[in-house]
Design brief:
The chain contains nine helices and seven strands. The protein starts with 22 loop residues before the first helix and ends in a 6-residue tail after the last strand. Helix 3 packs across helix 6 (126-139), helix 3 (73-84) packs across helix 7 (168-178) and helix 4 (86-101) packs across helix 6. It has two domains: 20-78 and 169-297, 3-Layer(aba) Sandwich (Rossmann fold), CATH 3.40.50.150; 85-166, Adenine-specific Methyltransferase, domain 2 (Orthogonal Bundle). The protein is globular and about 55 Å long. The chain has a seven-stranded mixed sheet, sandwiched between helices. With 303 residues, it is of the alpha/beta class.
Length: 303
């Protein structure tokens, strides 16, 4: 990793499906000459926790422009606050952290539920939204982000002895990196206007569920079904006609059904390879283990 920053930028939230463990595999899929290019625009239409974003902008300091997008308005609000107002956010998180850590277990749960209720109200400032987003992420069950059919965050309290609610060094390092980033909020397709022969896209959409019960999280109230997966494929074909390069991650249906060739049929124009990932969240301990994921790409001169 490049040593441009005193502290490495990294995700400021715990994120289900975060890509930290797959960075080596992602690097192998990127163009071999990426570090020599001076006019690349990096685009991430489903930014989530930002593991790939923060890694790639430090690994490749020659990428001077990036564009990120997500449909989650509160997440994007938090990115914008970290970019433009990180010191005020640190003050607010420090206050929340001191208050929460001083409480006993019962009082912590009550405080968490009161802050969750406040988070679901509509009259918050951007600083308060960002602070509550990070607080809830650090103290909720397993770092999940799940909303109900009305779009209200509804994850229960998690029981952590000493959660790091205000990670000052990470927030400041992230703020430095985000100065190179344009931050959008909305549907992934709006990033299509940046597609040209200098664009490099990385897609990490909501994964196709492997089983009926594995769709444990509704990240946005409208979900992401097979029709959406097909729409994303159409988008990949569209940007490829503009000579943009892309890498996309998704679940591997063959973990549970060797005959399931959904993605092979969907992305038959592109390269598909399988990589090993750890399943990080499962309510039964024996469900945590190595599974394969797929990586789809149109990059020809990869590592």
């Amino acid at each position: 990793m490049s040593r441009l920053y005193t502290y490495p930028a990294k995700p400021f939230v715990k994120w289900v499906g975060g890509k930290t463990q797959l960075l080596d595999d992602i690097k192998k899929t990127l163009p071999r000459d990426l570090s020599q290019k001076n006019d690349v625009t990096y685009i991430e239409p489903f930014v989530g926790g930002g593991a790939v974003l923060f890694w790639i902008l430090q690994e490749y300091p020659n990428i001077t422009r990036a564009i990120i997008n997500d449909i989650n308005e509160e997440l994007i609000c938090t990115y914008r606050v970290i970019k433009s107002d990180v010191e005020k956010l640190i003050l607010e998180l420090t206050r929340i952290q001191a208050k929460y850590l001083a409480l006993n277990d019962v009082a912590r749960k009550e405080y968490y539920l009161s802050q969750r209720e406040r988070y679901n109200e509509n009259d918050k400032s951007d600083i308060e939204t960002a602070a509550l987003f990070i607080f809830l992420n650090r103290t909720c069950f397993n770092g999940l982000y799940r909303v109900n059919s009305k779009g209200k965050f509804n994850v229960p309290h998690g029981r952590y002895k000493n959660p790091k609610i205000c990670d000052v060094e990470t927030l400041r390092a992230d703020s430095v990196v985000l100065q190179r980033v344009d931050i959008l909020c909305g549907d992934f397709a709006q990033t299509g206007k940046y597609a040209d022969n200098k664009a490099l896209y990385y897609f990490d959409p909501p994964y196709r569920p492997l089983t009926e019960t594995s769709a444990f999280t509704s990240y946005a109230k409208d979900g992401f079904d097979d029709a959406e997966q097909t729409r994303l494929r159409d988008f990949c074909e569209q940007i490829a006609t503009h000579k943009s390069l892309f890498v996309a991650s998704n679940s591997d249906p063959q973990n549970v059904d060797n005959e399931d060739e959904f993605f092979e049929h969907l992305y038959n124009k592109f390269s598909i390879k399988r990589v090993t990932a750890a399943r990080m969240i499962n309510s039964k301990g024996n469900g945590r283990g190595a599974i394969s994921e797929i990586m789809i790409s149109n990059v020809v001169n990869a590592h």
